[in-house]
Amino acid sequence: MQRIGNLGIIALVILTIIVWLVFPPEYDGRANFERQYAGEIIGSINIVLMATALFLSTRPKWAEKYFGGLDKMYITHRQVATTAFLLIFVHVLTVPISLTGWALGNYLAVIAFTGIVVIVLNSLAPRIAFLNKLTGGTYEGWKKLKKYIGVFFILGFIHSLTIGKPLHAFIAINWVQIFFIIGTVSYLYTEIFGRFFKKYVPYSVEAVKHPNQSTTEVTLRAKTDSIPTHRAGQFLFVRFTSNKTLNESHPFTISSAPHEDVLRVTVKASGDFTHALFSNLQAGMDAVVEGAYGLFDYKTGGQKQIWIAGGIGLTPFLSFIRDMNGSLQQDIDFYYTVRHAEEALFLDEIEAAAKKNPRLKAHVRFSSRDGSLNVDDIVKNAGGSVQAHHIYMCGPLPMVQAFEKKFLALDVPAENIHFEEFNFR
Ligand SMILES: Cc1cc2nc3c(=O)[nH]c(=O)nc-3n(C[C@H](O)[C@H](O)[C@H](O)COP(=O)(O)OP(=O)(O)OC[C@H]3O[C@@H](n4cnc5c(N)ncnc54)[C@H](O)[C@@H]3O)c2cc1C
């Protein structure tokens, strides 16, 4: 089920190629007809992929189950957008370009191409060191710039209709037009009218605690009775409207249990917003919450489980253990790893949960003292084999990726490996 979304996108691309091949354009005797034809197919795939990326940006809650959660939808969004970006170059290199006799569409192509390249390079910057240095961009700066991607998408489509000699391919062009409409409506939904459909719930900050030198635990109480329900392990988007710097929507896991009458989030100071939250957030401030999202849920996994939390990746597991009532159905080895003892959070609660739920075995590891957590220890504690286990992970991306690789090498089926992605860029 969780792969249907990605397979669906691949199917749309294949279908686009089929539509162009089954309903080819009329040959009108022009030179370079084949190159123009191939270029149009690539351009159409581009429109389909960009429309899909814009659609995924609308955060459709109903589609989460087809992608494995909103965090995974963002991964797909990133991959789709990157593929579309690369295809723009293939399109430009394929279509025959003449430097004379330009029509409106040619100028629009240059504008759309430049806009998209600038925005995409900026969004790839955190992953490519030299680009990061070059742009020096913050997440908010990137988000502001990214707002314009839809404008360039629209210009890119209009370009295809207004070039000097478009191909006569009625059905294929209409097929692509459907995606132009989907992409444009999605873009307008994200930037303009989506706010009238999403549920933004007013909360107030009831308490602010600092369990260590870099972490803030925020307790939020709803100001209204009609609040959406959530499952343990889900996340929300929150902004604090009383403070200008904190009035930015950021995703955080709900670290409290669903039965509590408040919401709690536990936030590590890692960048501008989260440092400002650590320093400036105070009880009594107003907040607006949207969500909950996510499908990270151990209750849907098998009977034998391994949980791995690295650093602030503890938060979904915190929600899991706060939700336990002593009648745990699964056998769980829970590894919580931090560098130094001072960084460890809520150890007393983890120990208490393990005492109350004998099937939960907690292993806390301070890597500066005990060395890094390694897969051999995990396999040993699991009785020598992990093939039948469901693995749940949340933590720094390199850690999660390294473990994923090792578990796959140990023949753990890919569908048994679950992780929460804390990075939306
Ligand atoms: C599903 C999910 C659950 C999360 N749960 C927690 C949690 O329980 N506790 C916790 O401490 N952190 C959590 N995070 C991470 C948290 O959202 C980021 O650390 C925070 O937004 C960083 O903002 P910053 O301005 O301080 O840092 P920056 O240095 O500006 O950003 C660092 C990175 O954080 C991400 N990020 C920044 N701003 C946003 C934003 N507005 N929306 C989305 N992503 C953003 C980007 O990947 C960015 O590259 C979670 C993230 C996700 C996606």
Give the ordered list of helices and strands. Answer: HHHHHHHHHEEEEEHEEHEHEHHEHE
Principal-axes geometry comes out as globular
State Rg: 25 Å
- For the biggest β-sheet, the strand order reads 4-3-6-1-2-5
Chemical compounds bound to the protein:
flavin-adenine dinucleotide
Stretches with pLDDT under 50, minimum 5 residues? none
What does this structure look like?
The structure is a single chain. The chain is an alpha/beta fold and 425 residues long. The chain is built from 15 helices and 11 strands. The strands form 2 sheets. Strands 4-3-6-1-2-5 form a 6-stranded antiparallel β-sheet. A 5-stranded parallel β-sheet has the order 9-8-7-10-11, with helices on both faces. Helix 11 links the parallel strand 7 (304-310) and strand 8 (331-338). Helix 2 (33-56) runs antiparallel to helix 8 and helix 8 runs antiparallel to helix 9. 34% of the residues are buried. Flavin-adenine dinucleotide is lined by residues 71, 126, 138-139, 235, 248-253, 265-268, 270-274, 312, 315, 420, 422-425.
